[in-house]
Specification:
It comes from Streptomyces angustmyceticus. It holds the Pfam family Acyl-CoA_dh_M. Its cofactor is FAD. One of its GO terms (molecular function) is flavin adenine dinucleotide binding. Strand 6 and strand 7 form a beta hairpin. The longest helix has 37 residues. 46% of the residues are buried. Helices cover 46% and strands 13% of the residues. The strands form 3 sheets. A 4-stranded mixed β-sheet has the order 1-4-5-8. It has a 4-stranded antiparallel β-sheet with strand order 2-3-7-6, with no helix packed on it. It has a two-stranded antiparallel sheet with strand order 9-10. Helix 4 crosses helix 8. It is an alpha+beta fold.
Length: 422
């Protein structure tokens, strides 16, 4: 789920300035000079090309699709397209450890990843690793090129998103090997104009729990596939509810092995969670830059806001939050990139990054006063994303409990609430 921003029609800063620069540096691991140069180009592209288009992109519809295609063409011409995607699908194959530096810059705008062709990374990796040859040939080239849209449908109405064992959507095998799907899904990013949706459905009996779940690549054009409504997130669009009423797909549309969905979903979620954290860092830096700019420019009869100790306190606390969070995120990146178990590190990073974004965006709104609540800055959208961040990819409480249980097990303590029983 990805809540949209509501922003002004001009960049947040002049093209030659970078008001968030002070937030970068310490806490961010050194990167090769080539990546540092590329990061500067990405940052400039997002600030100068993407941010001015945000009002149109946020509004959705045909004008948004036209604007996005234009940005994608510009990114391709600038050599900034699909930086982390595999080379065989038209990407530049930059690994996670190096792409992390670029993901922060892309994430300063909610639309940055889509404009630069990296928003499809999770779908491209999942389908390239686990989908059948026919699905790969039919869909992957178009998705990677930005010509086709893809979505991932897991959450259901009235079913806890953190408990996939309660998944109610069903897929029933037919005598000819095809599958028929029945159910509802909601809070699906981009499903309103998606061409392909990967759906989590139950293929085993209810008592099989998570062992009876499978994934299916479902074309949005299939009979019985219906987009029911847009589901606004704190007033912003971009999320959708869909119905699957007797949708039939061929046996080749099963993604991975039957009953093995959570292994694939976990692989996707671990990477997706870290990418979100990186992008939240980029958005927090954006809010921090706006706050500092406002503090220096806004004057009262007694002088600029920057002279106020309470404003200075918010600037300090925000910078502290950003620089304290970044090492946690990059530690999770390093472990994930190395193929190590990153569950503890990603849990810490996710909670810290979500809290950090909400804190910094809230402080920036406070320094702006009433102007921070209106449509002339990016702040309402950044604050909305910060609040939603504490629920995305599992609520904070889930990660807090999981990390704590894991730490306690390491000290020989088993909690009665530990589902692993270890």
């Amino acid at each position: 789920m990805n809540a949209k921003n509501s922003v002004r029609s001009a960049p947040d800063a002049a093209p030659g300035a970078d008001p968030s620069q002070e937030a970068t540096g310490p806490g961010q691991p050194d990167c090769p000079s080539a990546i540092a140069e590329l990061r500067a180009r990405v940052r400039a592209f997002v600030r100068e090309r993407v941010m001015p288009c945000e009002p149109v992109l946020d509004a959705g519809g045909a004008p948004a699709r036209t604007a996005l295609r234009g940005l994608q063409d510009e990114a391709k011409q600038a050599g900034l397209w699909a930086l982390p995607l595999p080379v065989e699908f038209g990407g530049q194959g930059i690994g996670l450890a190096q792409y992390a530096h670029l993901a922060e810059a892309e994430g300063a705008s909610d639309h940055g990843p889509a404009a630069l062709g990296s928003s499809t990374l999770l779908d491209v990796l999942m389908l390239s690793r686990h989908a059948g040859e026919q699905v790969q040939q039919r869909w992957l080239p178009g998705i990677a090129a930005g010509e086709l849209r893809s979505s991932y449908a897991m959450t259901e109405p009235d079913t806890p998103g953190t408990d996939p064992a309660q998944t109610a959507t069903r897929a029933v095998a037919q005598p000819d090997g095809s599958w028929t799907l029945e159910g509802r899904k909601w809070f699906i990013t981009g499903a309103g104009d998606a061409d392909l949706v990967t759906v989590l459905a139950r293929t085993g009996p209810a008592e099989s729990g998570t062992d009876g779940l499978s994934l299916f690549a479902v074309p949005a054009s299939a009979a019985g596939f219906t987009v029911l409504r847009e589901v606004p997130v704190l007033g912003a669009g971009g999320q959708w509810e869909i119905a699957l009423d007797g949708v039939t797909v061929g046996p080749d549309h099963l993604v991975g092995e039957p009953g093995r969905a959570l292994r694939i979903a976990g692989e996707r979620l671990r990477l997706g969670r870290v990418l979100r954290c990186l992008r939240w860092l980029g958005q927090a830096e954006r809010a921090f830059g706006l706050m500092c700019e406002r503090a220096g420019q806004r004057r009262q009869s007694s002088g600029p806001l920057a002279d106020r100790q309470l404003v200075q306190q918010m600037v300090f606390d925000s910078l502290l939050a950003i620089r304290s969070t970044r090492p946690l995120v990059y530690e999770a990146v390093a472990r994930l990139a190395a193929g190590d178990d990153a569950r503890l590190e990603s849990g810490l990073a996710k909670v810290a990054a979500a809290r950090m974004l909400q804190q910094v965006a809230d402080a920036a709104v406070q320094v702006h006063g009433a102007a921070g609540l209106g449509p002339d800055t990016a702040l309402p959208g950044l604050f909305r994303t910060g609040r939603a961040a504490r629920l995305l990819d599992g609520p904070d409480e889930l990660h807090i409990a999981a990390v704590a249980r894991r730490v306690l097990r390491g000290h020989g303590v088993t909690s009665r609430t530990d589902p692993s029983g270890r």
